Every structure is written in structure tokens, then in C-alpha cells.
Amino acid sequence: MFEVRVETSFSSAHHLLNYKGKCENLHGHNWKVEVYARGNELDKSNILVDFKTLKKCVNQVIDYLDHKDLNELEEFKGESPSSEFIAKFIFYKVKEQIPQVQRVNVWETATSRASYWEE
């Protein structure tokens, strides 16, 4: 089994719905995102997924989220844009182009991370 990982970051604001506490108010994070791809098969260059291709795909999704109020984006309307929900959103957007994607980690602080993957 092979695994590759790319890391990037973005800044955005959000507020949590159906939540009692400070995070129900509009606030922002400098999010760190890790995207993992995994598989058994390498191509003719002995590459699972080209880092350049994976980064380009991930950055397209991140550019969409960067410097936005996530609650205002169509895909988040009526949803609580928690770190877990953001990880799931990124996972499916990247997986549309790169089927080897296996997990997405979203860090909202240096010590708080949410992950999404399929079993």
C-alpha cells in the first residue's frame, strides 16, 4: 500500500448552527488541510498520484473556501460548517477528480483536528 499527502491552508469565517457557546458567533480560523491518497497501484513512473496533480485539485477547492464566510456558500446553506463538515466537503470535491483520496484532515487550531474518510 502506498500513501501520499499534501498540505495547504486557508482562512475563512464561520459560525456554528444549533450550538450554544462562543462558536455560535461569527469567528474565523486559519485552517490547515491535509489530503491523503492511498492505493496499491503505481503508474509507469512509479507514482501513485502526482503531487502536482493532487495539489492543483486540492487548491481549487481551497481557493473556493479561502477568505469567505462559509455559512454564505451555497453548499453550506442551512448546515453548520464544523471542521468535520468541512473535511467531508473537501473529501468529496477532491475525490471527484482523484479517486485515490482516502482521508482529509482539517485543523482549525494547532491542537484541534477533524478527519473524514470512507470505510
Short description:
The chain is α+β, with helices and mostly antiparallel strands and 119 residues long.
List keywords for this structure.
119 residues, alpha+beta, Tetrahydropterin Synthase, Chain A, four-stranded antiparallel β-sheet, 2 helices
Break the fold down into its secondary structure elements and pairings.
Layout: E1 2-14, E2 27-39, H1 51-65, H2 83-95, E3 101-109, E4 112-117
Antiparallel strand pairs: 1-2, 2-3, 3-4
What does this structure look like?
- The protein has 119 residues and is of the alpha+beta class.
- The chain has a single domain, classed as Tetrahydropterin Synthase, Chain A.
- It is built from 2 helices and 4 strands, in the order ββααββ.
- Strands 1-2-3-4 form a 4-stranded antiparallel beta sheet.
- A hairpin with a 2-residue loop joins strand 3 and strand 4.
| Rg | 15 Å
Distance between the termini: 16 Å
Mean pLDDT: 97
**What is the percentage of strand-forming residues?**
25-35%
What is the percent of helical residues?
10-25%
